[in-house]
């Protein structure tokens, strides 16, 4: 998960009952496997004393910063979101290294074409 990130900042008040996602996400970030995937990723923890809701700010390797409301988002959803965006970053990098334009633009007429070898749907078969 950390291999897609350059920085993680976790802010929470330890006395606030809504900090469960922050604590779980922090534990995931501090795991040996996560740290080995990207030792250069900075993980910062800011303990607050006010009533500010728990927040996680992640910076992706391409510089995009995302603020996540950890009071209403479970840690597993945060992790899944990072992995999905990371896969998109990897795909973008592969296209750029191959000299292909990004994003890939598919012409509208190609979206509606049928492909050889695909079976028609049963509903289409019945209507014919």
Automatic annotation (TrEMBL):
<comment type="similarity">
    <text>Belongs to the mitochondrion-specific ribosomal protein mL53 family.</text>
</comment>
<dbReference type="Pfam" id="PF10780">
    <property type="entry name" value="MRP_L53"/>
</dbReference>
<keyword id="KW-0689">Ribosomal protein</keyword>
<keyword id="KW-0496">Mitochondrion</keyword>
<dbReference type="InterPro" id="IPR052473">
    <property type="entry name" value="mtLSU_mL53"/>
</dbReference>
<protein>
    <recommendedName>
        <fullName>Large ribosomal subunit protein mL53</fullName>
    </recommendedName>
</protein>
<dbReference type="GO" id="GO:0005762">
    <property type="term" value="C:mitochondrial large ribosomal subunit"/>
</dbReference>
<dbReference type="InterPro" id="IPR036249">
    <property type="entry name" value="Thioredoxin-like_sf"/>
</dbReference>
<dbReference type="InterPro" id="IPR019716">
    <property type="entry name" value="Ribosomal_mL53"/>
</dbReference>
<keyword id="KW-0809">Transit peptide</keyword>
<keyword id="KW-0687">Ribonucleoprotein</keyword>
